[in-house]
Design a protein that fits this description.
Layout (H helix, E strand, L loop, with lengths): L26 E5 L2 E4 L6 E2 L2 H29 L3 H20 L3 H7 L15 H6 L1 H4 L6 H14 L10 E4 L9 E4 L1 H15 L10 E7 L4 H5 L5 E7 L4 H11 L3 E4 L1 H13 L8 E4 L6 H11 L3 E7 L2 E6 L5 E3 L4 E7 L8 E7 L10 E2 L2 E5 L12 E8 L4 E3 L4 E3 L1 H11 L5 E8 L2 E7 L4 H14 L5 E4 L14 E3 L3
Parallel strand pairs: 6-7, 6-8, 8-9, 9-10, 20-23, 21-22
Antiparallel strand pairs: 1-2, 1-3, 4-5, 10-11, 11-12, 12-17, 13-14, 14-15, 16-17, 18-19, 20-21
Helix pairs in contact: 1-7, 10-11, 12-13
The structure holds zinc ion.
Zinc ion binds next to loops.
Length: 487
């Protein structure tokens, strides 16, 4: 990100905003309560000469609006009942809009009234990918989007858009990667919501922030967001680590946003004395934050690590000042599909996002397993508080002939508690009766090995545990410490 010194502004009004987003073919309309952007046909087209300027202003207005909404809304939604009323109203309006434009959604409704949306059969990533062209409400076809997204990854150039829309791939494992499309306005909304949630003490005029943002993919939008109060700098995860150290030393960020795997590398560099940073806010994005990393990062920077929980499917949650992740129930409804055999009420969420227009997410089963908190969070928010995000349902271990499920969290705890010195590990399940294990430091291996064997035996399974290879540092791959390698 290079815009920090320029005269760009994020303000709460529509005036005086400047931007550099490059897309065309956007249609805009103003309507009832505020500015609303749509790709539909009733809207008026903005003419070419003013287009770039106009769109830019709109992107910034949306970012500012989303920022404010995210800041203010939690105060207006004081009870669970008020939240649910708010959701119901927004879901109905959104689905009325979306079912008229998404062929797939029209088919799923099959003539039922919009109010019957909870009776729709859930969908998932595979189904979404299979009927992509019918799902989306924008003129972006799967095959061309895929081609552009793959080329962008290969060439590390994320500037090309497709008819004005950003397309990209989630950072899952190959063969299981989700394709997403977003309008500049949706990206602006996302950025506004994310920024709002991670700058807890940000109020106009109070303090300036320098934000270091580590992403797999740059976005022309983020580059365009900057002001005297918030200056962004983008770091590409694919770049050399030494270049990051130089860049960070020059920028001296007050806010550090990165996937936990990168935060950990930066924390290690800090503890070694190779890097001197004093961020006031540290935010983990894009991957689930593992307690083993959280502890080390907190020790290095002296800050509780805040977490933005997101996926291709959108903005899903974020942690509050107590470090508890709350679901983003002001933008989506999360229904629960309980995981069989879980005493803790673990569930896979069925998500219905009532903001996302380009690619409607309606009763979409996420791959993640979430565990709710038993007691309310001390922050008092009425949104669902999580004890933890277990990670992918695909990574539940399946033990023995009965394939009894074992949550990654049990594996994690067994390893971590085996020896207090352990600060990194990998456990892969290769077959119902075979695991591999790697731990650091290496001489903690026997203790961790014993703990894993005992854990499986307590679950009635005899499992052989053998030594796994040391992991490679792969900044572009999602970090999975507990992984199942068979279907
Ligand atoms: Zn809380």
């Amino acid at each position: 990100m290079t815009t920090s010194d320029q005269s760009q502004r994020v303000t709460t009004s529509d005036q005086s905003q400047r931007v550099t987003t490059s897309d065309q073919s956007q249609r805009v309309t103003t309507s009832d309560q505020s500015q609303r952007v749509t790709t539909s046909d009733q809207s008026q087209r903005v003419t070419t000469s003013d287009q770039s300027q106009r769109r830019s202003s709109i992107a910034h207005a949306l970012l500012a609006r989303s920022f404010l909404r995210s800041r203010l809304q939690p105060q207006t939604l004081r009870s669970r009942a008020a939240l649910e009323t708010f959701q119901a109203r927004h879901v109905l309006a959104h689905l009325d809009w979306a079912r008229a434009r998404s062929r797939d959604l029209a088919k799923r409704f099959a003539g039922r009234p919009t109010s019957a949306w909870r009776s729709l059969a859930p969908t998932d990533k595979a189904a979404m990918m299979a009927s992509w062209d019918d799902v989306v409400t924008v003129p972006v076809r799967r095959d061309e989007a895929m081609k552009i997204a793959l080329r962008a990854e290969r060439e590390r150039d994320f500037s090309p858009t497709l008819r004005g829309y950003t397309v990209g791939l989630s950072s899952g494992t190959s063969g299981n990667r989700g394709l997403f499309v977003a309008s500049p306005e949706e990206r602006a909304e996302w950025a506004g919501a994310a920024i709002a949630r991670v700058l807890p003490d940000w109020l106009p005029g109070l303090r300036a922030h320098r934000v270091a943002f580590f992403l797999r993919a740059n976005s022309n939008l983020y580059e365009s967001v900057g002001s005297r109060r918030i200056a962004f700098r983008f770091f590409d995860l694919a770049d050399d680590f030494s270049a990051h150290l130089t860049g960070l030393s020059a920028q001296r960020p007050t806010v550090l946003l990165a996937p936990p795997s990168m935060l950990r590398l930066l924390a290690e560099a800090t503890l070694r004395g190779d890097l001197a940073l004093a961020p006031t806010v540290v935010v983990s994005v894009a991957e689930v934050l593992d307690p083993v990393d959280e502890g080390l990062i907190r020790r290095a920077f002296g800050r509780v690590v805040r977490q933005v929980y997101q996926a291709t499917e959108g903005f899903l949650g974020s942690s509050c000042e107590y470090g508890t992740v709350h679901l983003a129930e002001d933008v989506a409804v999360f229904e629960r599909e309980l995981v069989a055999g879980s005493a803790e009420g673990a569930f896979q969420p069925i998500v219905t996002d009532f903001r996302r227009r380009s690619q409607p997410i309606v009763r979409y089963r996420l791959d993640d397993v979430l565990v709710p908190r038993r007691s309310p969070c001390p922050c008092g928010r009425v949104t669902t508080a999580l004890d933890r995000i277990e990670g992918r349902a695909d990574d539940l271990f399946l033990l023995g002939a009965a394939r009894a499920p074992l949550f990654p969290d049990f594996v994690r705890r067994a390893v971590m508690l085996a020896d207090a010195r352990i600060d990194d590990y990998r456990v892969r399940q290769l077959a119902p009766d075979a695991l591999t294990l790697w731990v650091a430091p290496d001489d903690a291996y026997p203790a961790a090995h014993g703990a894993l064997v005992a854990l499986c035996r307590a679950r009635g399974a005899t499992v052989s545990v053998t030594r796994g290879e040391a992991p490679l540092r792969e900044p572009l791959r999602k970090l999975r410490r507990v992984e199942r390698a068979f279907a």
